[in-house]
Design goal:
The complex is a heterodimer of chains A (432) and B (310). Chain A has 13 helices and 16 strands. Chain A is α/β, with parallel strands linked by helices. Chain A folds into 2 domains: 62-184 and 331-392, Rossmann fold (3-Layer(aba) Sandwich); 189-322 and 410-430, Response regulator (Rossmann fold), CATH 3.40.50.2300. In chain A, strand 2 (98-99) and strand 3 (105-106) form a beta hairpin. In chain A, helix 2 (75-94) runs parallel beside helix 12, helix 9 (270-282) runs parallel beside helix 10 (298-304) and helix 12 crosses helix 13. The longest helix of chain A has 22 residues, at 2-23. Chain B is mainly alpha-helical and 310 residues long. Chain B contains 12 helices and 4 strands. Chain B has helices at residues 4-35, 42-57, 75-98, 106-128, 153-175, 177-187, 189-194, 199-225, 231-245, 251-272, 277-291, 303-307; strands at residues 60-62, 67-69, 144-146, 149-151. In chain B, the strands form 2 sheets. A two-stranded antiparallel sheet of chain B has the order 1-2. In chain B, strands 3-4 form a two-stranded antiparallel ribbon. In chain B, strand 1 and strand 2 (67-69) form a beta hairpin. In chain B, helix 1 (4-35) packs parallel to helix 5. The longest helix of chain B is centred in the N-terminal third of the chain and has 32 residues, at 4-35. Classes of the chains: A alpha/beta (432), B mainly alpha (310). At the A-B interface, helix 1, strand 9, helix 8 and helix 9 of A face helix 1, helix 4, helix 9, helix 10 and helix 11 of B.
Chain lengths: 432, 310
C-alpha cells in the first residue's frame, strides 16, 4: 500500500510540474544579458554639432520611453526593433536633435527597457518610464500581450503609446471604438484578410477552410477572415484551431480534407505554421495553401523547406521591396531604411524593425510640431498622421482608426524555391 | 458525421503516434521492473536523441544562431550517434543520480529523475533554442493510400520499426544472458543477488537500454511531428499513462496501452476538439488510477505488481 501511495504522490508531483511548466510565460529563451530592467539609455550621442553655427540654440532634452522584448520568447521580433530604435535616436542626435516648436534644438534621450517577453515586466517598465524617467511618449510593446497589458497604465497617466505589435485588441475596445492613448504601427489583421479575399475572388473560389492558432493573434486573424469572407459571400466550410506549440495536426488536416474546400487559409506564426505546412503536404492535400503575415520570416522557410513551396501570404512591402515597381510610394523610404540598417548592423532588417521605424518617425514629427506635451502629442498623432509614408504602409490615422493602414500597403507574396516572390494583383488568378 | 475515410485517417495517425508512446512506455517498464524507479526523464532522451541526429545530418543553427552545424552525415550514422548519446546520458543518470540515492525512498529517486529532466530540457533549450526542427524522412516518395486514408512513408517506418524494436526487445529478454539476468533481478532481487547478479550493473543496463529505446522513438517520429525542446515532458507523461494503462510492470500491456492511448487521443482530437487531446489522456489516467490500477488488460498482473502489493 505504501508503494501505491508513493506512486499517487509522484503523479501529483508530475501534474504540479506540468502546471508549473504551463504557467511560465511562453517559451522563455535563455537570457544572455542579465541586467533585467536597467535602462539602456541610448548613448546620448553627444551631437557632434556639425558646424558650430551660433544660431543653434539648445533646449532641454526630449525624453522618449521604450520597452522592447530584447530577450525571451519574442526576442526574434524584439531585437530588430531595439536596434532600430537605437539607430533612429542616433540619427536624430547626429542631426543636432529634434527642432521643437520653440525653435530650439532638443537632444533626444531614449530610455529603453527590456521586458524579457513578459507582460508583467512590461508594465513595470512602463511605470518606471512614466514616473521616474518622465518620458512624454512611449514606443514599444513587442508582443500583443505586453502591448495590451500596459494600456491601463498609459491611459491612467495620460501618456501616448505607439505599439509595434499587431493584435487589433491593442487599439480597439470591445465596442469597436479606439483606446484614447494607444496607437500602433503594424497592419491590422482585417486588411490582410481582405488581400486574401481579393486573391480568392480572382480565382473564383467560394468555399474555404480557415484554421488558426488558438491565441490572441490567431483568433483575431480568424475573426477578421470570417468578417471579410462574409462580406464577399465566401463560405467557410471548415473552421478550426490548434493549440500554440502543437506539432501534430493530423486530426485537423483530416477534417479539412473531408470538408473539401477550394483553398485553405492558415493563421499562425512559423512555430506552428511550418509544421502544419509540412504535414499538410505529407498527407497529400492539394488545395492551395494560404498563410497570413505571421509567417513572413526566414524561420518559416528554414523549417518547412520544400513544403513551403507555393505557399501564398499577404505581408508588408519590405520583404519584396526589390521586386516592386520603382514608382511605389514606399520604395524610397524602405530602401533608405534597409541601407541604413545594413550599414550599421551588417544584416538585413525585418518588417518588425520597420514597425519601430514608423513609430519613431511619428514621435519625431509630433515632437517637432507640438513639443514635449503628452496631451498635444496624442492629438497630433490622432489628427495629423495623414498620408504618412512609412515602412509598414501609408498611414491615415484618425479617431476611428488608431492604426491607419489599408490593404494597399500589403502585397501578396509566394514562396518559390526558398525565395519570396512578389505576386502582382493582376497575376492573382495565375498562382499558385 | 465523420466518414469512414476520416475515421481510418484518424486511427492511422493515432497508431503512428501511439507507437511512440508504446516505445517510451516500454522504457518506463524496463527501468521500473529492474530498479523500482519511475524515470520521468524518459521523454528527454527522445528529444536529445532526435536533436543529435538532426544536428549531424542537416544544417542547424546552434547557440542562438552563433554557430551553424552543417555536417550532413548519412542518416543511419547520425541516428546511431543520437542513440549512443542518449545511452551514455541514461547510464550517467543512473550512475550519478539513482545509484548514490539507492537507500532513499522510491519517491525521492523519482524526484531525482524529474530534476534530471528539467536540467536536460534546459541544456537542450540552450543549445538548440525554441524552434521546431524536423529530421528528413527516411525515404522520400508519395504516401500510400489505405482505406481512403493517407499513410505517409515515415508512418510506415514508425510502425515497422516499433514492431522490430519490440520483438527484438522480447527476444533479448528471453534468450540472452543479460536479458535473463535483468528479468531475474526484476522478479526477485534478493535471489538474483545470491546467484551472483550485480543489481547495480543491472540498473545501469536498464537505464542505458531505456534511454536508447526512447532516443530511437524520438528519431523515427521526428519527421512526422517535429522535435522541439519541450516535447520531452509530454512524451514522458504520455508514456507514463501508457505504462499505467498496461498495468505498471507489464511490457505487453505497456505497448498495447501506448497504442490505445494514441488512437483515443487522435479520435478525441478529430471528432470532438483538438483542444481536448491532452485532457483525454489525463482523464484516462485518472480513471485507470481510480478504477483499475492493475491496468486494462485482464489476467496479466505481473509478479512485480503483486510484490509491490498493488
Amino acid at each position: 500500500m505504501k508503494n501505491k501511495l508513493n506512486i499517487l504522490i509522484s503523479i501529483l508531483a508530475v501534474f504540479g510540474l506540468l502546471l508549473a511548466a504551463c504557467a511560465t510565460p511562453t517559451t522563455e529563451a535563455p537570457k544572455p544579458t542579465a541586467a533585467p530592467a536597467q535602462p539602456t539609455a541610448v548613448p546620448a550621442t553627444k551631437a557632434p554639432e556639425p558646424t558650430k553655427a551660433p544660431e543653434v540654440v539648445k533646449g532641454d532634452p526630449y525624453t522618449i520611453g521604450a520597452f522592447i522584448s530584447s530577450t525571451g520568447g519574442a526576442s526574434s521580433l524584439g531585437q530588430p526593433e531595439a536596434d532600430t530604435v537605437t539607430m533612429m535616436a542616433e540619427q536624430f542626435n547626429k542631426a543636432g536633435g529634434i527642432k521643437g516648436p520653440d525653435g530650439k534644438m532638443h537632444e533626444v534621450v531614449v530610455k529603453m527597457y527590456d521586458d524579457q517577453s513578459d507582460p508583467t515586466k512590461a508594465v513595470e517598465a512602463v511605470k518606471k518610464i512614466i514616473e521616474s524617467d518622465k518620458a512624454v511618449v512611449i514606443v514599444g510593446g513587442t508582443s500583443s500581450g505586453a502591448s495590451v497589458a500596459v494600456n491601463e497604465t498609459v491611459t491612467k497617466a495620460k501618456v501616448p503609446f505607439i505599439s509595434v505589435a499587431s493584435s487589433s485588441a491593442i487599439v480597439t475596445k470591445a465596442d469597436g471604438s479606439q483606446h484614447e492613448w494607444v496607437f500602433k504601427t503594424p497592419q491590422q489583421n482585417l486588411p490582410v484578410a481582405m488581400v486574401q479575399i481579393d486573391w480568392l475572388k480572382a480565382k473564383g473560389f467560394t468555399k474555404i477552410a480557415s484554421i488558426g492558432v488558438n491565441d490572441a493573434f490567431g483568433k483575431d486573424s480568424m475573426a477578421a477572415m470570417k468578417k471579410a469572407a462574409g462580406d464577399a459571400n465566401i463560405k467557410l466550410v471548415y473552421e478550426g484551431t490548434f493549440e500554440p506549440k502543437t506539432t501534430d495536426f493530423s486530426a485537423q488536416i483530416t477534417a479539412i480534407k473531408a470538408a473539401a474546400p477550394e483553398a485553405v487559409i492558415v493563421h499562425a506564426v512559423p512555430a506552428e505554421g511550418a509544421p502544419f505546412t509540412v504535414q499538410y503536404r505529407d498527407l497529400g492535400l492539394k488545395f492551395p495553401l494560404v498563410h497570413n503575415h505571421g509567417i513572413g520570416n526566414q524561420a518559416f522557410i528554414d523549417t518547412a523547406k520544400v513544403a513551403a513551396n507555393g505557399v501564398l501570404f499577404p505581408i508588408g512591402k519590405i520583404l519584396v521591396i526589390d521586386q516592386l515597381a520603382a514608382n511605389d510610394p514606399q520604395k524610397p523610404v524602405i530602401d533608405k531604411y534597409i541601407a541604413d540598417y545594413k550599414a550599421k548592423f551588417n544584416k538585413a532588417p525585418s518588417s518588425f524593425g520597420g514597425h519601430a521605424w514608423d513609430a519613431m518617425i511619428m514621435v519625431k514629427m509630433a515632437l517637432e510640431a507640438v513639443g514635449p506635451d503628452s496631451a498635444k502629442i496624442r492629438d497630433f498623432l490622432e489628427t495629423k498622421i495623414v498620408k504618412f509614408v512609412g515602412i509598414s504602409g501609408v498611414f491615415n490615422i484618425d479617431a476611428k482608426d488608431h492604426t491607419g493602414i489599408g490593404k494597399e500597403s500589403l502585397v501578396m507574396v509566394q514562396i518559390k524555391d526558398g525565395k519570396w516572390l512578389y505576386v502582382a494583383p493582376a497575376d492573382y488568378a495565375k498562382v499558385p | 458525421m465523420p466518414s469512414s475515410e476520416q475515421l481510418a485517417q484518424l486511427i492511422l495517425s493515432g497508431i503512428t503516434q501511439g507507437s511512440i508512446y508504446a516505445l517510451i512506455a516500454l522504457g518506463f517498464v524496463t527501468i521500473y521492473n529492474v530498479t523500482g524507479v519511475i524515470n520521468f526523464s524518459q521523454g528527454e532522451f527522445a528529444v536529445i536523441g532526435a536533436f543529435v541526429a538532426i544536428t549531424l545530418s542537416q544544417k542547424v543553427l546552434l547557440w542562438h544562431g552563433q554557430m551553424t552545424a552543417s555536417l550532413e552525415w548519412p542518416l543511419p550514422v547520425a541516428a546511431l550517434i543520437g542513440v549512443t548519446t542518449a545511452v551514455v546520458i541514461g547510464a550517467l543518470l543512473y550512475r550519478l543520480g539513482i545509484q548514490p540515492s539507492r537507500n532513499a525512498s522510491p519517491l525521492s529517486q523519482i524526484v531525482v529523475t524529474i530534476g534530471a529532466s528539467i536540467a536536460l530540457r534546459g541544456v537542450v533549450l540552450l543549445v538548440w533554442g525554441t524552434d521546431p526542427y524536423r529530421l528528413t524522412p527516411f525515404t522520400e516518395g508519395p504516401p500510400f493510400e489505405f482505406f481512403g486514408a493517407i499513410l505517409t512513408r515515415q508512418s510506415v517506418w514508425v510502425m515497422g520499426l516499433t514492431v522490430v524494436f519490440v520483438v527484438s526487445l522480447f527476444l533479448f529478454f528471453k534468450y540472452t544472458l543479460i536479458g535473463k539476468a535483468l528479468r531475474a533481478s526484476s522478479a526477485n532481487p534478493g535471489a538474483a543477488r545470491l546467484m551472483g547478479i550485480n543489481p547495480r550493473q543491472m540498473g545501469l543496463i536498464a537505464f542505458a537500454l531505456s534511454a536508447g529505446l526512447s532516443a530511437l522513438a524520438g528519431i523515427v517520429v521526428s519527421p512526422v511531428t517535429f522535435t522541439t525542446f519541450d516535447r520531452g515532458l509530454m512524451l514522458s507523461l504520455k508514456g507514463f499513462v501508457a505504462m499505467i494503462m498496461g498495468g505498471l510492470t507489464d511490457p505487453v500491456g505497456a505497448v498495447v496501452g501506448g497504442l490505445i492511448l494514441g488512437v483515443v487521443e487522435s479520435l478525441a482530437a478529430g471528432l470532438i476538439s483538438s483542444g481536448y487531446r491532452d485532457a483525454f489522456t489525463f482523464a484516462i489516467l485518472v480513471i485507470v488510477l481510480l478504477v483499475r490500477l492493475g491496468g486494462f488488460i485482464k489476467g496479466r498482473k505481473g509478479e512485480a505488481l503483486e510484490r509491490a502489493g498493488l
